[in-house]
Amino acid sequence: MSEPEISDPQGGPEKTPAEVQFDRISVAVLTATRDDMRKLGEILSSFEKLGKIAASEGREDVPDAVRAGDAVGTALMFDDTARKHWDQAMDIFSRLASCCQEVFRGNKMNRPVLSRIYSDIREQLEIVLEGGEVEEAPPAAVADKSMALDQDKELYTDFITESMEHLDSIEVKMVDLEAAPDDSETLNAIFRAFHTIKGVSGFLNLRDVNELAHRTETLLDMARRNELPVTGPVIDVIFEAIDGMKGMVRDVSEKVSAGAPTREFIGTDRIVARITAVQEGREDSAPGTRAASIPPRLGDVLVEQGKITQAEIDATLSGQADGAERQPLGMLLVEEKKISPKDVAQAIRIQKNAANAIEAQDIRVNIHKLDGLVDMVGELVIAQSLVCNDPDVMSIDSQRFYRNLSQLGRITSELQKISMSLRMVPIRATFQKMSRMVRDLAKKSGKEVTLLMEGEDTEIDRNMIEEIHDPLVHMIRNSVDHGVEKPDVRLAANKSACGTVTLRAFHHGGNVVIAVEDDGRGLDPEKILAKGQERGVVPAGASLSESEIFALLFEPGFSTAEKITDISGRGVGLDVVKRNVEKLRGTIETRSLLGQGSTFQMKFPLTLAIIDGIVVRVGEQRYILPTNSIVEALRPPREDYLTVEQRAEIIRVREELLPLIRLHRLFSIPEGIQDPCDGLVVVIESEGQKRAVLVDELLGKQEVVIKTLGGGMANVRGISGGAIMGDGRVGLILDVSGIFEITGKQPSFN
Amino acid sequence: MAERQGIDAATGSVKSHKFLTFQLGEEIYGLDILKVKEIIGIMDITPVPQSPPFVKGVLNLRGKIIPVVDLRLKFGFDEREYTERTCIIVVELETPDGKMLVGIIVDAVSEVTNISEADVEPTPEFGASFSTEYIRGMAKIKSKVVILLDIGMVLSGGGLGQFAG
Q1: Does the pLDDT of residue A321 top 50, yes or no?
Q2: Which chain B residues touch A715 with a CB distance below 8 Å?
Q3: CA distance, residue B129 to nearest chain A CA (Å)
Q4: A289, A415, A587, A732: most buried, per Cβ within 10 A?
Q5: Å from B68 to nearest chain A CA?
Q6: Distance CA A105, CA B126 (A)
Q7: In this model, does residue B158 exceed pLDDT 50?
Q8: Alpha-carbon separation of residue A659 from A651, A694, A720 (angstroms)
Q9: Looking at this predicted complex, what is its ipTM?
């Protein structure tokens, strides 16, 4: 082996710029953990630098290897599926680097060896690069897929909703893009959306969707890299692709609801051909205006079905355009005997179906408009009841009038019901997404986990659902990764090998509670406390209650995991959860029994939700107590009213001693019944504690819409919000746990 | 538009703003009209416990719940019975969390008037015991003096925390 002139033998002090890059690559490859994007970025940039160095030195053979490295890197960077082959990719990187190194050292003698290595690498390279493509998927992934086909109808359902959402958002962004074709951010957003669809459809083995998404993505990528100007035809063809994909997704949806997962579709050739044409700059192939491309034209449908050729249609069309009265194409074709009436009818049906399908089932509405609508409907209901109860109106003696009035009443209440439901969606979809995740996580960590779900029908504000998603993912990861033990450990502890994670949602006291419960190893307070002291979060020797100790888990940088896995346990996560939850003005509560499991309860206030409430009167004020938090209401007999040191008051309710809270005193209401035996005592419960609350009387049960109390008043303790009452005034909704907190801190009220 | 700006530039700074003037006791105050959403008569207000005395409570403004502040109490005047002339001026404030509506109770609303910058004198110093940070200036109109308020500062001056109670 001859050494290049400038470089010393190994260990020499001087390194060529290329050597520096080789070193960087090898170090990065060795130290990169799975999915380490930063390292991947380093590797990519090193290859790029190598390319430049090679070019400046006039080498031609190196860029080949450099390009390969670049391709693998890019694939890993952008394609989740390719990332499955991370280890092979790393291997390729190091072999490519050593190939380059040989070439840079001027080892021309090794040429044949080099080319063999190249071809060897190329094979591997293809596997990695085709990772995103269904056809070349490695056996492992195929097995995964077939299982998915059998098991998961919901995967398809998820895919359908998600891709429809993506496509909708793409459409909106496309309009932006048309207005500002140079906006790289919009372009990137569109690219990413297509990319996601491509990834998922690939995973689900939906070839056509995958292929079309892939083609469109390639087109967009060219635009991103400024290789293709975003012109009208480009936008048109993307719109076409969107429509095509929507059709395919709808097709999938139909097949899924019919019970059979699908891989069939009429074909993507037409659109793909058009994309290719646009890519090559043949602009004329975009058919008409975009408006005309929705729905498909009759001619196109016929050609696609192979009933007629494009040339024949063109001939007929030119005749049609000349005619004074435009006759429908179908009719002309039949007249000219080019096609049978039956075929035309079929084609028209297809065309109509497509047109119907294009009409979306959902529309997107600005949330402020929706809020405004809900507010105004509420006002309408109040106005209606004011009119109906007006003494002058009541004195009208007319059958017809009352019939109309009651009709008005029915309509308003129906309208109210609809408007209330507009923003509320069941949490089901979010929960179902989790089931997929639990399965993957369990498989990854070699555990058996069943996910149980309760209360999927609990309705929750749509905005809230999006916000809740991330914290929920974190909590479930935490439960699967840290909570549930491996099967052998579980068996040793006399538990069934398969762990259970329960996801529960319910309304409680005007809050939505989402609980993640596992029957795993539970939390060890002593261990956590020790860790807290070790990390300096807790001063040594401090004595903390169990719940305070558990709260430490949510401190930044606190992790009890002994080893770091790629799922969780890097010490980030729970503090992020806490931050997210607090952003929603929610709280997290942790309960755990060592060896038996843990429960994490996230409690969120409802921004816009209906709660069942009992309206109570205190003096001249009315308050709404959430029905969920009420245990019972009673008028205590004299002997059940007790005092402690003549200060703290207690009501005895069937052998239970409950501290008495006087609402009028707590809220400084001058009037109000002073003697508990004259008023009414409502027993309320929150977080396992019970208190007795003194009110003047119960006014009735009512469903109310929770609203926030305008700016600056959102965090009044003891009040969770307000509601518009039947007379148009505001009634305050009591926050039971908040009241407990205030009274707990002011012993004189107890 | 350009012409008017030209005039402005030529005549120094004779920019003028429309102000809504209102009464609190014997004093006349002015609010930038752009901040005013609407003026409503006094209506049922639901008191909110645990809030400072000047926060009278909340009311239902066509389905939206908004807080209401009694400006007399905020400025430390005596409380006065509400009359036919008592008004709630609904103002829109910019806060870090977005726009918010607040009602302010005043004795009576007077008029909308143009006040040019030339008529405005800076707030005199009243000494350390009297904070004037929310007074934008004093305007003289027809022998009367209008105290121009920065309503955002009035309501958040002591920090919104105080407001929230």
Answers
A1: yes
A2: 164
A3: 26
A4: A732
A5: 9
A6: 84
A7: no
A8: 6, 11, 22
A9: 0.79
Kindly indicate the confidence band of residue A714, based on its pLDDT and cuts at 50, 70 and 90. low
In terms of Cα–Cα distance, which of A191, A87, A85 is closest to A132? A85
Model pLDDT, residue B36:
93
Which residue among A666, A712, A729 places its CB closest to the CB of B160?
Answer: A712
- In contact, A730 and B58? CB cutoff 8 Å: yes
Q: What is the DSSP letter of A481?
A: I
Binned at pLDDT 50, 70 and 90, residue A682 comes out as very high
- Cβ pair A718:B95 closer than 8 A: no
Integer Cα distance of A395 and A725 in angstroms: 25
Contact state of B63 with A378 under an 8 Å Cβ cutoff: yes
Residue A677 burial by Cβ neighbours in a 10 Å radius (0-12, 13-18, 19+): middle
Interface test with B, best of A713, A735, A741 (most B CBs within 10 A): A713
CA distance A553 to A643: 40
In this structure, the dihedral spanned by the alpha carbons of residues A106, A111, A115 and A117, taken in order and rounded to 10 degrees, is: -70
Pairing label, strands B27-32, B144-149: parallel
Across the interface, whether the CB atoms of B93 and A711 are under 8 A apart is answered yes
- Average confidence (pLDDT) over A476-500: 87
Number of CB atoms found within 10 A of residue A650's CB: 17
Question: How open is the CA angle A680-A685-A688, to the nearest 5 degrees?
Answer: 150
Q: Any CB–CB contact under 8 A between A470 and chain B?
A: no
More confident residue, B89 or A253: B89
Contacts of A599 by beta carbon, 8 Å cutoff, 6+ apart: A515, A516, A517, A518, A590, A591, A592
> What is the CB neighbour count within 10 angstroms for residue B7?
10
Rounded to an integer, what distance in angstroms lies between the CA atom of residue A387 and that of residue A381?
Answer: 10
User: Across the interface, do A379 and B62 touch by the CB < 8 Å criterion?
Assistant: yes
Q: Quick check: A711 and B101 CB within 8 A?
A: yes
What average pLDDT does the segment A532-537 reach?
76
- Spatial CB neighbours of A24, under 8 Å, sequence gap ≥ 6: A42, A43, A46
Instruction: Name which of B49, B60, B100 is nearest A718 (Cβ-Cβ).
Output: B49
In terms of C-beta distances under 8 Å and separation of at least 24 residues, what long-range contacts does A582-590 make, across chains too?
A583/A467, A584/A464, A584/A467, A584/A468, A585/A714, A585/A715, A586/A511, A588/A554, A589/A547, A589/A687, A590/A523, A590/A547, A590/A550, A590/A551, A590/A553
**Averaged pLDDT for residues A117-142:** 53
Contact between B66 and A710 using a beta-carbon 8 Å cutoff = yes
* Rounded Cα–Cα distance for residues A34 and A84 (Å): 9
Query: Cα-flanking dihedrals φ and ψ of residue A644, to 5°?
Result: -120, 125
Length of chain B: 165
Helix boundaries (H) for A323-460: 329-335, 341-358, 367-388, 391-394, 399-421, 428-444
Sequence-distant (≥ 6) Cβ neighbours of residue A643 within 8 angstroms: A649, A650
Sign of the torsion angle spanned by Cα atoms B96, B99, B105, B110: positive
**Cβ neighbours of residue A600 closer than 8 Å, sequence gap 6 or more:** A475, A478, A479, A515, A516, A517, A588, A589, A590
Ramachandran region, residue A26 (left: φ > 0; alpha: ψ -120 to 50; beta: rest):
alpha
Q: Give residue B37's pLDDT.
A: 92
CB contact under 8 A, B63 and A719: no
**A667–B50 C-beta distance less than 8 A:** yes
Q: Which of 45-104 (B) contact A at CB < 8 A? A: 46-51, 55, 57-60, 62-67, 93, 95, 97, 100-102
Partner-chain residue, chosen from B50, B95, B101, that has the shortest CB–CB distance to A716: B50
